[in-house]
């Protein structure tokens, strides 16, 4: 089944000012309600609305309106900084396409630096090339970007020295001058997952974008929450999402400075993806944990009717799969 584009409400307003005092409960990573809820409540199936949007393929600029998700340019920069292996593709001398696995580093502008070893003699004089890089997120999603550009060898000694320093920092070894190549970025295709539509990013938007500030801690945070706080993730779906469909399981996929993605599983084995924004942008791991704690407290109070709904719920999800039973 083909996936559908994601449609979201505006970011949640500040929800951390409930009319009742906030309890002094433990942080989300050891979060427990102020009293154990009845077993009958825990056995009630959660429900989550499903509203599917039509497919779209479009060119998107980094200078877009405010969003609750990082731009494709930012996502691409994050992928490139968290990865070191990709698939380099170009045209061989016999005009057949040729792809090889390579290691790469990136400079401060996100320009890929590759060492092609002795395999580069198979390539034609046409320097048009691409580098596909994939980033697996929590074993649930593989986001990727493909950089198209022109391949060349650096001839400036100062630039070459900087490149070799970057390579040594990335891999702990020296790069051979003969094999160092630079892939000048012309444009980038970013995809959220396999079989999904991609978004083209211009070279200028890509170069001006920054990687997400949570990139180095995102995987660890998601693992902690999925391991120790599944009850909170399910409660997020119940409280922050407009609901009319049963949800049997929920797993967090990824977290960034603007919010987090969750996969929802229905009893019919359908899989949906939902984006829940933070009440405000975070800049580091400490801020992300603080936001999670506040949202967990609010969700718990709403569920217990201690706190009224003072925010607009997320109403639309993206159906991404129908699993074989």
From TrEMBL:
It comes from the Eukaryota. This is DUF2470 domain-containing protein. InterPro entries: DUF2470 (IPR019595), Haem_oxidase_HugZ-like_sf (IPR037119), Split_barrel_FMN-bd (IPR012349). Gene3D superfamilies: Electron Transport, Fmn-binding Protein, Chain A, PNP-oxidase-like. Residues 219-291 form the DUF2470 domain. GO terms for cellular component: chloroplast.
